[in-house]
Design goal:
Radius of gyration: 16 Å
Number of strands: 0
Order of helices and strands: HHH
Shape: elongated
Strand content: under 5%
Oligomer: single chain
Distance between the termini: 61 Å
Structural class: mainly alpha
Helix content: over 70%
């Protein structure tokens, strides 16, 4: 296996692992969207924020280690941030109703 093949394999593995973590966070967001209540749950929000921070650190490490490119990492994070913003908008809307 050439060094190029190894790097391609590592790149793909890193992206797969990061996407799996992103999918887990997305599941947390989806569960909260499905069970919206009139009260916000600070603990749940803290878990989501902690998970997002952890994922951002994983992505930063993978980028600095040369396992992924910056655009791939930003794409993963921006998609989750968009979904998280939708959740917070829905929570705010449910409180105002």
């Amino acid at each position: 296996m050439s060094s190029s093949d190894v790097m391609t394999s590592l790149h793909q593995k890193a992206l797969t692992l990061l996407q799996e973590d992103a999918d887990n966070i997305e599941k947390l967001i989806q569960i909260q969207m499905e069970t919206l209540t009139n009260r916000r749950c600070p603990l749940y929000e803290e878990v989501l924020d902690t998970q997002m921070y952890g994922l951002s650190r994983e992505i930063d490490f993978a980028f600095r280690a040369g396992l992924i490119n910056e655009a791939a990492g930003k794409t993963i994070l921006s998609e989750l941030e968009r979904k998280l913003a939708q959740l917070y908008e829905a929570l705010a809307k449910s409180r105002n109703e």
